[in-house]
Amino acid sequence: MFKYFVIRVNAMEKKLAEYKCDTNEAISLKVVRFPEDVDDDSTTFHPEFSHQVFGDDEIAFGYKGLQIQLFYTAGNLSTLFKVKYSSKVTEAFDCVEPDDVEGKIREIIPAGFTSNTDDFTSLLEKEANFKPFGTLLHSYTVHNEEAGEFTYQIHKVEISCPGFREYHERLQTFLMWFIETASFIDADDDRWDFFLVFEKYNKDGETLYATVGYMTVYNYYVYPDKTRPRVSQMLILPPFQGEGHGAQLLEAVHRFYCSLPKVQDITAEDPSENYVKLRDFVLVKLCQNLPSFAEDKLLLGFSADMVQEAQDKLKINKKHARRVYEILRLRATDMSDEKQAREYRLEVKKRLFGPYRKNQRELAKMKKCLRPEELVSHMGQMDTQTQHEELEKSYQDVVEGYRRIIERIATHA
Ligand SMILES: CC(C)(COP(=O)(O)OP(=O)(O)OC[C@H]1O[C@@H](n2cnc3c(N)ncnc32)[C@H](O)[C@@H]1OP(=O)(O)O)[C@@H](O)C(=O)NCCC(=O)NCCS
Question: Ligand 1 atom closest to Cα of 48?
Fold first, then answer.
């Protein structure tokens, strides 16, 4: 009897499992320019994350063949939101509730979307009226082998710009899908600056604009009369990633703040690995022609002149200037020359060793107050051999990252 019961429970669990869907796969995103894009799967992209909406397992329960469409018109980001599925768990089980998928998405997308594909397609006709918000900061072109030359514009916008608040509410929904710990900002706080990237394109002989990405920056106050702009969110929409727009945006924003006397330096909030790579590239590009970073000076070591010049001319703080120095020095170093290579290695390891040295000092302090058995357990964590191995590994990782920046400077700067 009990065995029969267990078999039935297992069978039921198996059947219920058929109603689980991976939300990263189920959500289809699209930025649409032409009516034919709506049914063209090649223009669809999917979230990298959906845990902030659907929980850590990124699963929606209760549906078979779940499809969540979140399509946006390319410029204005007018939204189509549609949920489709082939069957619902309630059709097979009376008392099992499916997740409220629609409700969860409604919590993050602003009202005013349509759920009707024909209505959405007709909204595309209004895209010709869409013009980029704010003032033009920078414009650049990108040459594509297959598609030809494209022009892009970077704009700075105030929240008070008519229509921008609503547009920003639509735009920021993308953060949930592409930034692991995204949160929406209080756009009413007047310390926020907004920067947008648009692509110009041609449709029936008219120039239209497509949204490419954006950045939000918070202006922190620094006593007594300075500000410290902190990059908070940065997103280049996936169809445009890897084409250099991130670097263009960061450089344009950096140059903008450099031109303001009240700005002390430019920082970032909890920067991701990809952001740091981008920043390294941009800062190296900006610093490489400063006199204090000239090749002969680089080989003499990290200097106060470098710190001063990076700070005064480019609002770059000491920590970032140090990374720039290490990257440029690597470029200037002949690594096949044993002496030069050794000097470089020691220079970088000396910096990396900083935290280990702090550990050693703490250990010395601990020795004075810990009982012997406690001390032994702490000593274990700080074993010299392990320290050396870890230091070598960190060094190799750092240099590998630096080489990628140097390669990018050589090919794309
Ligand atoms: C991180 C992010 C902003 C970078 O934007 P991006 O436009 O893809 O950045 P770029 O195109 O300038 O550089 C990305 C890569 O493309 C490469 N690239 C740039 N221009 C290129 C070109 N014309 N041809 C080929 N490759 C190119 C770069 O070398 C770089 O490669 P790497 O990562 O190996 O160094 C973007 O990926 C993104 O929005 N990610 C999700 C959100 C996020 O992580 N935001 C940052 C923290 S808030």
Answer: 41
